[in-house]
């Protein structure tokens, strides 16, 4: 089947996609994780559909039978309106078919027991604000005064209005540096025990990143996510609920790949400033292993770098590289290592 033209509604109507989001079918999980990594232009619709399925699946209390019947009656009435011609027969266009499939998909979710309370139904995506960075970085000020730097080819989505007493939530596709405004009372010192109303939450691929007020960088591509903490504290949790939560301290990096569900959330010490240096257009490093510099370049610029001589990875460098122009950066980097570089698309060779 050709999924390249799928919209949010198409994803919602696909039973295999539902099974992937709800972690019910390992084959579906493997397929969709690989698919979205190969179709980055579809990731926004992909992640939006996944969020809707999770919201519908995330009821916290049983739904009264009377309410279930009422909601299903409304749903059936809407489905009949979509499927039944009015007055004169109408030729079904692709848009009509997709809309009908959307309601069928929602109906399947309801029949499977994924209907939520009336409040949850009303909260399923209403009005959103979306910020996107095309070929260059973009700086954004959020409604609460927090600052975000989006890397090229990245996007951030959030509810059009943040209501007092509710968590500040954003959905990230790509890479971003966050400087989050602290709104919690001074008596609340740790994010782990803080109420949802004062948290700032980034939904990044397979991870949720919760903070109070801090500075950190997130790399989110398909089913993979990395978080690097510059200051403060962040709490990480997996969408599938596995492996428990993980707290990061400044100077730590955590990463998770949803394609390896048995792997726990892991963290390690890094030079945090190196991972956020791209926001200033200059990569500064001091006595830094080449292997670490390459890891940052791969995360920041979405390239895969192959080194001909493994001994180069153990070398350490001190200096600066220009951050805005990838080819200029690679040229300077290769000269520092006294090697040549070749680039074809996202593939780079140093030999």
CATH fold label of the largest domain: Jelly Rolls
Q: Tell me the overall shape.
A: globular
Euclidean distance between termini CA atoms:
41 Å
Question: What is the overall number of helices?
Answer: 10
The average pLDDT value, as a whole number, equals 77
What is the structural class? alpha+beta
The residue ranges in which pLDDT falls below 50 over 5 or more consecutive positions are 59-92, 111-126
Number of domains: 3
Which CATH class of the largest domain is shown?
A: Mainly Beta
| Order of secondary-structure elements | HHHHHHHEEEEEEEEEEEEEHEHEEHEE
| Structure summary, number of beta strands | 18
Percent helix: 25-40%
Explained architecture:
With 351 residues, this protein is an alpha+beta fold. It folds into three domains: 8-123, no CATH class; 128-270, Jelly Rolls; 281-350, Phage tail protein beta-alpha-beta fold. Helix content is 33%, strand content 29%. The protein has ten helices and 18 strands. The protein has helices at residues 8-13, 15-21, 26-38, 43-57, 65-83, 94-114, 118-123, 272-276, 290-301, 326-337; strands at 128-133, 138-141, 147-150, 154-159, 168-179, 200-204, 207-211, 215-221, 224-231, 234-238, 246-248, 252-257, 266-269, 282-289, 304-307, 316-322, 341-344, 347-350. The strands form three sheets. Strands 1, 2, 3, 4, 5, 6, 7, 8, 9, 10, 11, 12 and 13 form a 13-stranded mixed β-sheet that branches. Strand 17 (341-344) and strand 18 (347-350) form a beta hairpin.
